[in-house]
What we know:
This protein is α/β, with parallel strands linked by helices. Helix content is 40%, strand content 21%.
Amino acid sequence: MARLSFFVKRMSFKKGDFIFKINDKRDVAYIIEKGQVNLFGRASESQHNPSITIGDGEIFGESAILEGGCRSASAVAETDVDAFVLSRSVLQSRMDELDPLVHLIISMLLDKYCRSRLVEAGAVPQDKKFEFSDTEKQLVTAYEEQKKVVLKELQMEQELRRALENRELKAYLQPIIDFATGCVRGYETLVRWHHPEKGVIFPNDFIPIAERTHVVQLIDERMLEAACALVPRLQDIAGDDAKDMFISVNLSGANFDDETVVARVIKALGKANFDPKQIKLEITESALVNDAEQATRILSKLKKTGVQIALDDFGTGYSSLGYLHKFQIDTLKIDRSFVTELNESEKALDIIKAVVGLAHTFNLDIVAEGIEQPNEIEVLKNLGCQYGQGYYFGKPIFYEEALTELKAIFDDKDSKGNIIMFKALQSKNS
Ligand code: C2E
Ligand code: CA
Ligand code: CA
């Protein structure tokens, strides 16, 4: 996300105003929004640098963001002019947000430009006498850095594809607890990469790259298949009690670029011999904002397959109440950051209250994420949250281990035949 200090400013000039003059310090470039600008060089250079007039959408003074130094031409407003002002820091922050491959190519072109200027000046790049300006040095360094970033990403993409083939991506499960009963209501699948040399790699270290390279759709499909295979295992362990349990799967926003995700979900459910509502797809709000109409279409098709939908990390994104009634959502997951700050910040408490109110209005379930302290449960319950997830109840563990744990819980019923996971919670409820 663009840092606020790097926003593009806008300036207005009256007809006849100088926007800059020859020999002024080069600092910014301009993009004309409306009007006409005349550019003219030194009299002695007029043959090479004749006067020209440019208009809407044209960029001028751009050497300021490439070279620094002084202006070699003047710019005068031929009419009243509105222009956007582009600084190097704006350009840099926008470049940092680019796809690394596009970033590399632009850096390479800028690097070439800087080197060709040295050659034009009669120097060879290795020549110590003709040094790059500070601005040029930054551009050349950015190119060197970008080469490393892109190589790492391209290698990671190849490795991820190999990892998928070798089935190195494993489903870990974290329990989601029903506050009313103290028992497991479902599990969230969280992917872990069991790398043969590097050990266990966490999703934050590969999901962003997988998203840029579209490998994430394959990962999500794999996790969905794993979830579909887990539901019958829950039934084996919990019998009829399993009918109300669910397994949730994370769906990256990259899946919302086109509608193929619907076919992938239908395919995964195709072999399933259980109620599809036992699968819950977790989607972040940001996945729905790019193309809201397409997202609505896809979500409604996903919903028709019978699965449940949860909005993940709720409260951190571009929360727009508009979509809550438009999209058919079943669950809101309150982001961990609010739960963590629950005891220190009134604001976090207010946000959770507002989310709970919203959920009640739209008849949605609420899961509070990131519960680490028992006192958080009490507050969340009092606010009206029904479900919780967090290290306090259990960290994500390898799915076979999670199933073994669940079996032990079901084997250990109390004298009335109740299944209790968190005795403290249960006794407070009874
Ligand atoms: P998320 O979907 O918000 O998942 C919750 C993350 O918070 C998990 O991190 C979980 O281990 C962690 N967490 C749960 N309870 C606590 C707690 O009490 N304290 C703290 N500090 N952390 C807690 P994890 O597994 O590292 O996953 C990070 C993110 O990676 C996930 O955030 C999700 O956005 C993404 N991710 C994980 N698996 C997949 C996947 O299969 N597909 C996609 N597309 N994304 C995935
Ligand atoms: Ca999630
Ligand atoms: Ca989350």
